[in-house]
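Practice problem: Thioredoxin, mitochondrial
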Amino acid sequence: MAQRLALQRLLSLPARGPLASHGRAFGTSAGRRSTFNVQDGSDFQDRVVNSPKPVVVDFHAQWCGPCKILGPRLEKLVSKLEGKVLMAKVDIDDHTDLAIEYEVSAVPTVLAMKNGDIVDKFVGIKDEDQLEAFLKKLIGA
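Answer key — structure tokens:
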């Protein structure tokens, strides 16, 4: 009974949040379109190396604690840039060849790539201000 009353109260509250004003329950965000998981070497070549836009490459692993903190933080900031930069996620356990090719010796490792070239890089976790500066430098803002 108490659960039903709590649910009724919750459902009677006015809609809030980013989707409330759009009048739809589900939508696609810029973050989802600008962030992708690399499928294989060919996909990396097509979507990262040959990208006309700057790309942030997040080399991570499922077992890596700092990666679990950095990944969402970076995705959030990339989505705020509304398509000015893309984010490629590379799981080093699934794509060891790419990790070796790009000399990834620790995770998380994040590369900033422009026109197929690495223009910046960091290893480890960063706070939001440091990530914003990293992204602004990449897009030239």
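Discussion: The chain is about 40% helix and 20% strand. Students who identified this feature from the tokens alone can consider the problem solved.
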